[in-house]
Every structure is written in structure tokens, then in C-alpha cells.
Specification:
By secondary structure, the protein is an alpha+beta fold. It is built from 9 helices and 21 strands.
């Protein structure tokens, strides 16, 4: 998480003076004070970007373009390099290689104050000794925006985040959700070219977080501002983004629309990180007559018709739990299995099961009656279209067709 604010009033006032002296915009970003009205949306291009600390490479070569008005989420676990990317874009860290182009302007060597970027932090980074109005007006003050214009802009920003009437309150008098709205208002009040969000909803409870996800998406769509979110929350990334960029160990794993990344993961990491999935390892085997099967390690064979893999290739089958149906023991469809554990989650029940060949699977089913208890005999069923084939160590290429469980050799 990025931390660049200090709460000491003396330090704030000193910082304000220094930033004001340093705040000089070039002709491409508008005059000092941004008196020219609304800015055009800007794209951002990361070209061959990498970052290394001594022998540790925090970010491998990254090439990516966020289009004007696009909402992109950089998603990954702790240590994946996502915050490094955000720091590089914001200008808080210098890249080892590559360049950053914002709205057609190379800003790689440009100071943070001159990049015209809005930042929202997980910790809100609000000034507790200031009112809501003064917090939101702070970026305008350091830019020398006239008081009357600043008052209008602050009012407009507070209207957008539904906090009109809160101008005179101290931020310590606000709830967590209200404080986050103030942080959003402060980040957009000076009409930034792009908006960077560093896990801004992580500190909120689930209900409030889901509510603010909806509000954030509506706000971003209304403003049309290019937005880059950094998070480890898969649900947040899928619900907010136009595209997701999945990182692991400083390297890009996949860049895709949320639906594609979830249903067609590029590799085993993406399949397992974007929600829960059943990953079954096997080998692609070509039989006589052009028929193919995926022979699982348990010995089960899953027929399919199309493959780009040579015979003998190691592959992984991905089946999402919500696509696995749990049927009664007398069903004539599916694969016989035994319930190991059932977890009641309200609307759904999550079953941990094991097939007759010892293959463990997870199924997530809508709750329509009493869950099957541990030890119960069931059958597992799924549609052929629910299975996704991932080559060993490579990019997924084709769905297994057909891949229904009744075709398993048992």
C-alpha cells in the first residue's frame, strides 16, 4: 500500500508551500491552476516497463495500454508486483527499463506533481485537522485555483459522491464509507488525466464494500476517466473492470476481459487465483481413428475431439465448482462419488467430494433442500462446455469437447 501523506499540520503546510512552488504544468497538461475547464480523457501506455531492486526483480517487462475511459484492474497476490506498477505510474518509483506514456506524452522522467494523476489510498490519507471541504479543495489550493472556482468544483465533486452538506464536518466525524467518498472527491476534483486506486475498499466491511463497488463503477462511467485499480480481491476485479491484468511474481499471466479471464484462464495460476476451480492434471492421448482422451492421473479418461497438443502432452483440466451438479445416488447420469464434507453457505452448499477413482472435486450448488451429509453416495454431472483445457506451462487453447462426465471411463 502506498503512503505519501503526513498528518502533522506543520508538515502539511510546509508540503503545500513546496508543492505550490514546484507545480508547473507544461502546455500539454494545461496552465497552472487548470483554469481551462474539463480535460480530455487520456490513455496510458506502459512500454517495456520493469523494476529491479538489486538482484530482486519486482517487475518483469510489462507492455500494456489502457485505453481512454477504460477501467483496468491490476490483480495479484501479495508480492506479485501490482503496487510496483502503481508506484511507477504515479512517479513514486523510477523504472529500471521502459517508459510511461500518458495521453501521448512521455512522463517517465516527470515528477509526480506534474503528471496530473488522481490517487486514492486504502488508508484514505485524509487530513484530520481539516474539514471535508478543505480536504477536497486541497489539490485545487496547491494548484492556485481561484477561490470561487474551487468552491464550485468542490461542490460538484461532493455532489458526485453524495456528500453535499458535509462540507463543514471534520473527517473524524465521518463513517468509513463517507471518508472513502471524500477521498474519491479529492482525487477527481482537479480533473486528473487518469485515476489510480490502491485497494481503496479493502478496509471496509463486506456490505459497504459491495455498495461502494457499485457507486465507484457508476462514478467512473459518468466521468469517463481512465482508471487503474490495484487489488488482490478477485470479486472486486471481476465486478468493476473492463479488463484485468493478472500478475504473479512480477510477471503478467493474462490480460483479458473479466469473463474471458474467468472462463478461459491462460494458465493454472489464473484458473486457481480467479475464484475456486477444480484443476485435474492429465495427459493428452491420441487413440486410433483420430479420437483423443485426457488420461487423468487417477486413471480416468476424459474424451474430447479437438486438440492442438501433440500426443503425450501434459495438460490441466479446469472445471469451476458452480458448473458441477450433485445428483442423487440413483441417477443414471454422471460419475459416482462420495461426499467428504458439505459446507452450508446460505444460498449455496459447497461439497468436497471424491470420485470412485479417488479424484477430489469441489461442487457449489444452489441450496434446494437438506445438504447431503459426509459419507453420502452421489453422482457428479457437468456440461461439456464447462471444461477448459490448459496445456502444461502454456496458454489455454481449446475447450474439451465433449467433456461430460458420463463419457469418463470408469
Amino acid at each position: 500500500m502506498l503512503e505519501i501523506w503526513y498528518y502533522c499540520p506543520f508538515a502539511i503546510d510546509l508540503c503545500l508551500k513546496n508543492v505550490r512552488r514546484a507545480m508547473v504544468f507544461n502546455e500539454d497538461t494545461g496552465s497552472r491552476g487548470n483554469k481551462g475547464g474539463a480535460r480530455a480523457m487520456a490513455s496510458i501506455s506502459l512500454e517495456g516497463l520493469s523494476k529491479q531492486y538489486g538482484q530482486f526483480r519486482a517487475l518483469e517487462r510489462l507492455d500494456f495500454v489502457a485505453q481512454q475511459g477504460e477501467f483496468v484492474t491490476i490483480l495479484g497476490p501479495s508480492g506479485s508486483g501490482k503496487t510496483t506498477v502503481l508506484s511507477l505510474i504515479a512517479g513514486l518509483t523510477e523504472p529500471t527499463t521502459g517508459r510511461i506514456v500518458l495521453g501521448g506524452r512521455d512522463v517517465t522522467a516527470t515528477r509526480p506533481a506534474q503528471r496530473n494523476i488522481g490517487l486514492v489510498f486504502q488508508s484514505y490519507a485524509l487530513f484530520p485537522h481539516m474539514s471535508v471541504f478543505d480536504n477536497v479543495a486541497f489539490p485545487l489550493k496547491v494548484r492556485g485555483v481561484p477561490a470561487e472556482d474551487a468552491r464550485r468544483r468542490v461542490g460538484d465533486a461532493l455532489d458526485l459522491v453524495r456528500l453535499r452538506g458535509f462540507e463543514d464536518r471534520r473527517t473524524t466525524q465521518l463513517s468509513g464509507g463517507q471518508q472513502q467518498r471524500v477521498a474519491f472527491a479529492r482525487a477527481i476534483v482537479f480533473q486528473p488525466d487518469i485515476l489510480l486506486l490502491d485497494e481503496p475498499l479493502a478496509a471496509l466491511d463486506r456490505m459497504l464494500r459491495e455498495q461502494l463497488q457499485v457507486e465507484l463503477k457508476q462514478l467512473q462511467r459518468k466521468l469517463g476517466i481512465t482508471t487503474i485499480l490495484v487489488t488482490h480481491d478477485q470479486e472486486e476485479a471481476l465486478s468493476l473492470s473492463d479488463r484485468v491484468l493478472v500478475l504473479a511474481d512480477g510477471a503478467v499471466q493474462q490480460i483479458a476481459e473479466p469473463l474471458e479471464a474467468y472462463t478461459r484462464p491462460a494458465n493454472r495460476f489464473v484458473a486457481g487465483f480467479l475464484g475456486t476451480t477444480n484443476c485435474l492434471d492429465g495427459e493428452a492421448i491420441r487413440h486410433g481413428g483420430g479420437n483423443w482422451v485426457i488420461r487423468l492421473r487417477s486413471g480416468e479418461e476424459l474424451p474430447y475431439r479437438v486438440s492442438d497438443e501433440p500426443s503425450g502432452s501434459l495438460v490441466t483440466i479446469s472445471i469451476r465448482p458452480e458448473h458441477v451438479r450433485v445428483l442423487g445416488p440413483n441417477s443414471e447420469r454422471g460419475v459416482p462419488a462420495t461426499v467428504i464434507e458439505s459446507v452450508y453457505l446460505g444460498q449455496t452448499v459447497r461439497y468436497h467430494v471424491e470420485t470412485v477413482h479417488g479424484t477430489p472435486l469441489i461442487a457449489a450448488c444452489m441450496q434446494t433442500g437438506r445438504p447431503y451429509p459426509p459419507g453420502a453416495s452421489v453422482h457428479l454431472d457437468w456440461d461439456a462446455e464447462a471444461v477448459w483445457l490448459i496445456p502444461e506451462g502454456g496458454t489455454s487453447r481449446a475447450k474439451a469437447q465433449p467433456a461430460a462426465p458420463e463419457l469418463l471411463r470408469v
